Amino acid sequence: MSAIYILWLRELKRYTRSRAQIVASLGQPLLYLLALGFGLGPVFQRAGNGSYLQFMAPGVIGMSVLFSSIFSGLGLLWDRQFGFLKETLVAPVSRLQIMIGRTLGGATVAVIQGMLVMVICLIAGFRPAHLWAIPLALGFMVLIALLFAALGMAIGSGLQDMQGFQLIMNFLVMPIYFLSGALFPLKNQGVVMKYVTHADPLAYGIDGMRNVLGSPLAAFDTRLDLLVLVLVGCVLLAFGAYRFHKIEI
Amino acid sequence: MIRVRNLVKSFGSFTAVNDVSFEVPAGEIFAFLGPNGAGKTTTIKMLTTLLAPTSGSIELDGLDPLRQKNEARKRFGIVFQDPSLDGDLTAAENMEIHGVLYHVPSKLRKQRTEELLKLFELWDRRGDQVKKFSGGMKRRLEIARGFLHTPRILFLDEPTLGLDPQSRNQLWTHVKRVNEAENVTVFLTTHYMDEADRVAHRVGIIDHGKLVTQGTPAEIKQQTESESLEDAFLKLTGSTIRDEGADPAAQMRQFAKMWGGKR
Q: Which of B59, B56, B61 is nearest to B26 (CA)?
């Protein structure tokens, strides 16, 4: 237990010490929120769908949680060649404990990041349906963070170089984001788009937040969102643990 | 303390370590020498439970590192070729994590941390982030960390790589001191033959995965009729240059250099 705790604490300390990085990682969601939120707002409104900011705020929160959690796992690549990973792998601690500590740490950082973006959204004019909707949305953030931290761990365990990192970024992380319905409603899409978006776990996370926060145009039932996130999350945690177990230095 | 018998490791058709046997008694400093790609690091990885041998047996303090992994891991400390510190954390925090991972009780952990950081002349900088340390300081911290859980054996994989003569000298003085004070067995690899000559009680030379010779530095010099260990080494291993293929780790190392060693 103490091993899990100290590795979790390490992730947190690293996060709080890189202030420049915190600010930098808020830049992208902020850009989406301001440029798209205000830029596309009038069009969205004219289409009769209400406030675009209300619609996309959960999407931008989901995006920051996705990026932050998946990067924590991909950071294994760096940590593996020169870092600290070897130190933990020769310690008399099981790999499962190391993986859990790192994943929980990465997920915690991602949730903090998501909350910061939530605050920015509130300042920008986003209004949740009720005040108690915020803790519920927080619950969804936790699920999204755990799911993608585990996925990042699974991928990071096999990454060998920086080129691989770019591939993952362009062919996995960005599509997960763009196809999640963070920026557009998932309702009334064509058949192909419907299947693709329904296969994206982030779609359920963002949709869940829309449901609890009372944003317009949620696509699924809250219970379905929850069920998918928990199931996929468990599968990915097991997969991540398995892949981490297989790492050879 | 370390007993290796007929150790073999093959990667596909390539045999990195081929039928290597040696013994290192308790309290000895043993230098494992060889050109690039001779099988030094592969051997260390097998000794430290990171890699499973293809065949042969290893005993560390009477334990089989394959079957009693965690027990064996508590008995040794290791300093890797690449730094394995967390640059964002302070020296004391790096020590703390190590202590927790090795189940060192909190009181003893604090006491040993203070002793070791003082011995390695890092106590005054314990609250500084490691990324602000020089190469020599990082190395010293890593070695101090390796000693934290009072291991019976310390593995050092090219610990002086890239250090200036002053730092190298100082580092070996410290290692020798702990070796004598705590009777720790030290197993090291290095490319600097003069270091091996000065520090090691016994030396083993490996080439193309095979152990070419072993003995005290004096014995090896006598055996090859050489003036220095370096001459003896060149006589035994030839003077052809071994070019290693660029592996991902080497590429990453280059990348890290380019970005100014973020950690």
A: B61
Q: Both tokens of residue A171?
A: 């062919």
Query: How many C-beta neighbours within 10 Å does residue A42 have?
Result: 10
Question: What six digits make up the tokens of B227?
Answer: 């003036």
What digits encode the pLDDT tens for the residues B90-128? 999 999 999 999 999 999 999 999 999 999 999 999 999
CA–CA separation, B57 and A83 (whole Å) = 30
Q: Which of B12, B9, B65, B4 is nearest to B38 (CA)?
A: B9
**Interface mutation target, options B11, B89, B101, chain A, most CBs of A under 10 Å:** B101
Q: Residue B249 is nearest to which of A5, A81, A90, comparing CB atoms?
A: A81
Among candidate residues B23, B28, B48, the one with its CA nearest the CA of residue B183: B28
HSE value, Cβ hemisphere, 13 Å, CA-based, for A118: 23
Minimal-distance CA residue of chain B relative to A245: B50
Rounded to whole angstroms, how far apart are CA atoms B57 and B212? 19
**Rounded Cα distance, A157 and A207, in Å:** 30
Which residue from A10, A92, A161 is facing B89, i.e. has the nearest CB? A10
Name the phi and psi angles at B40, rounded to 5. -65, -55
pTM, full prediction: 0.88
Confidence of residue A231 (pLDDT cuts 50, 70, 90): very high
Q: Do A84 and B84 touch (CB under 8 A)?
A: yes
Query: How far is Cα A189 from Cα B122, in angstroms, rounded to an integer?
Result: 63
- What strand order describes the sheet that includes B14-24? B14-24, B2-11, B55-60
Interchain pair B73, A92: CB under 8 A: yes
Contact A30, A127 (CB under 8 A): no
Spatial separation of the C-alpha atoms in residues A12 and A107, rounded to whole Å: 10
ipTM above 0.90, yes or no: no
Contacts of A6 in chain B (CB under 8 A): 96-97, 100-101
- At B46 the pLDDT is 92
* Domains parsed from chain B with CATH numbers: 2-257 (3.40.50.300)
Strand ranges (E), chain B: 2-11, 14-24, 29-33, 55-60, 76-79, 153-157, 185-189, 202-207, 210-215
Q: Helices H, strands E: what count in chain A? A: 14, 0
Q: Using an 8 Å CB-CB cutoff, list chain A residues near B161.
A: none
Does position A237 have pLDDT exceeding 80, yes or no?
yes
